[in-house]
Specification:
Helices cover 28% and strands 16% of the residues. Strands 1-2-3-4-5-6-7-8-9 form a nine-stranded mixed sheet. By secondary structure, the chain is an alpha/beta fold.
């Protein structure tokens, strides 16, 4: 009985394989798609606008719309409060000093550092933002301020950051988004291996001579932004440097829109 039932199955399988001869194999199941390698990048956190014609990858704030025909990366500030959004956060999730005052990022006086020792509770707030990025048509998400713990005089640790990062990356992957590490060169290897990041979005790696810290971990899947006010050498030399990631853009510091006289946008193409 077993043999008589197996023969038709084998015959059917053989016919199916014969019919597929010469056809390419099926793609693997859909999952997060990484940014295209070496394509032109625009970084639009200061305001959304129509990208230049040669741009293939665009990064925008989570409050902005994705771009249908481009690979779109959604910016999420996952480790400290976004300007103007302090009231989103319960008091108990804000890091506080010995006097009970919220700890403000010294480089960003309108952003309060989140207490990443409470990763689960923070993820409950940030997670819906990530899911919104997916439903809004973005292809990936970048999480900013992964290295906030370095600015807390030891109150927060690298492990705290990794715990939260892992939760956020898992959320991104669950909704089909690739997850981008933002800066934090010294932690790139751990963020990749322990938190599961897929690619990196990096600022001023040429200026600080740390591009290889990212490319050694993520290969060509690095999106780089340099700024005009801290360019270490002429732009054409930055472009010619083999250490510079293939997808790199030169922007003005405030990332203004093209109608602003301060707007700068240059690529190496």
């Amino acid at each position: 009985m077993t043999v008589r039932r197996a023969l038709p199955l084998l015959a059917a399988t053989a016919l199916l394989l014969a019919g597929c001869a010469g056809q390419p194999p099926h793609d693997p199941p859909a999952g997060p798609q990484l940014p295209p390698v070496g394509f032109q990048l625009d970084y639009q956190l200061g305001g959304a606008y129509d990208p230049p014609n040669d741009v293939d990858v665009v990064v925008r704030d989570r409050a902005a719309a994705s771009v249908d025909h481009l690979y779109s990366v959604c910016y999420v500030n996952g480790f400290q409060t976004q300007p103007g959004e302090l009231d989103v956060w319960p008091d108990e999730l804000l890091l506080r000093d010995d006097e009970g005052e919220p700890v403000i990022d010294p480089d960003w006086p309108d952003e309060v550092i989140l207490d990443t020792r409470k990763a689960d509770e923070i993820a409950k707030i940030v997670g819906p933002w990530v899911r919104d990025c997916a439903s809004d048509g973005f292809d990936a998400v970048e999480f900013d301020n992964l290295d906030t713990y370095t600015r807390t005089d030891g109150a927060l640790t690298r492990d705290d950051a990794l715990d939260l990062a892992t939760l956020l990356v898992d959320t991104a992957h669950d909704v089909g988004l690739a997850a981008g590490q933002k800066n934090a060169a010294e932690d790139a290897s751990l963020l990749r291996s322990r938190a599961g990041f897929d690619f990196a979005v990096v600022e001023e790696c040429a200026a600080y001579e740390e591009c290889s810290a990212y490319t050694e971990v993520y290969g060509d899947h690095v999106l780089a932004i340099e700024y005009t006010d801290n360019l270490p050498r002429p732009w054409d030399e930055v472009c010619a440097d083999p250490e510079t990631p293939a997808s790199v853009v030169l922007r003005d510091r405030d990332l203004v829109t093209p109608d602003d006289p301060a707007y700068v946008f240059e690529t190496c193409g």
